[in-house]
């Protein structure tokens, strides 16, 4: 299977040839802090299955720990993948949202649930809108 992905500004484009090892939601505190989200959804792939076809020089990385690195576009800041060559050698954790076929992939597991935010399990019960609801007044009074 071949998948493609890009950063938000399209400066970086990549191709993945091969199946994902796993698709998962990570609820660890580190992922929440480095991504500013309630959890992160990753597509775990063998590193040799990914090839950057445009903008390789635009991909920079930040050491989030002494072993883990976040790789992102230096122009728009889009996180593209994480690597941890010590703990997970030869594997990349692609950010699901950068893949063009993201809607075809479903996480099979949640990990680090000991640090999961308590309201996550109640998401299905929340109000849902196709778009952001419009306010009658632009500023609260």
CATH structural fold name: Metal Binding Protein, Guanine Nucleotide Exchange Factor, Chain A
Number of helices: 1
How much helical structure, as a percent, in the residues?
under 10%
Any idea of the CATH class?
Answer: Mainly Beta
Q: What class do helices, strands and sheet pairing give?
A: mainly beta
Number of domains: 1
- N to C succession of SSEs: EEEHEEEEEEE
What can you see in these coordinates?
The chain has 141 residues and is mostly beta strands. The protein has a single domain (2-119), classed as Metal Binding Protein, Guanine Nucleotide Exchange Factor, Chain A (Beta Complex), CATH 2.170.150. It contains 1 helix and 10 strands, in the order E-E-E-H-E-E-E-E-E-E-E. The longest helix is centred in the N-terminal third of the chain and has 7 residues, at 29-35.
Give descriptors for this structure:
single chain, 141 residues, mainly beta, Metal Binding Protein, Guanine Nucleotide Exchange Factor, Chain A, 7-stranded mixed sheet, globular
Question: SSE layout and pairings?
Answer:
Blueprint: E1 2-6, E2 13-17, E3 22-26, H1 29-35, E4 40-46, E5 50-54, E6 59-63, E7 69-73, E8 79-84, E9 88-95, E10 109-111
Parallel strand pairs: 3-10
Antiparallel strand pairs: 1-2, 2-5, 3-4, 4-9, 6-7, 7-8, 8-9
């Amino acid at each position: 299977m071949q998948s493609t992905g890009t950063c938000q500004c399209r400066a970086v484009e990549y191709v993945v040839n091969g199946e994902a090892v796993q698709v998962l939601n990570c609820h660890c505190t580190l992922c929440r802090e480095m991504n500013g989200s309630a959890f992160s959804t990753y597509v775990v792939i063998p590193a040799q299955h990914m090839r950057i076809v445009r903008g390789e020089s635009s991909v920079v990385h930040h050491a989030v720990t002494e072993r883990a690195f976040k790789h992102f576009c230096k122009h728009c800041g889009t996180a593209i993948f994480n690597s941890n060559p010590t703990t997970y050698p030869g594997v990349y954790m692609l950010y699901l949202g950068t893949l063009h076929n993201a809607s075809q992939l479903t996480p099979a597991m949640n990990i680090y649930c000991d640090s999961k935010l308590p309201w996550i399990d109640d998401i299905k019960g929340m109000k849902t809108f196709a778009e952001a609801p419009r306010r009658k007044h632009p500023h609260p009074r």
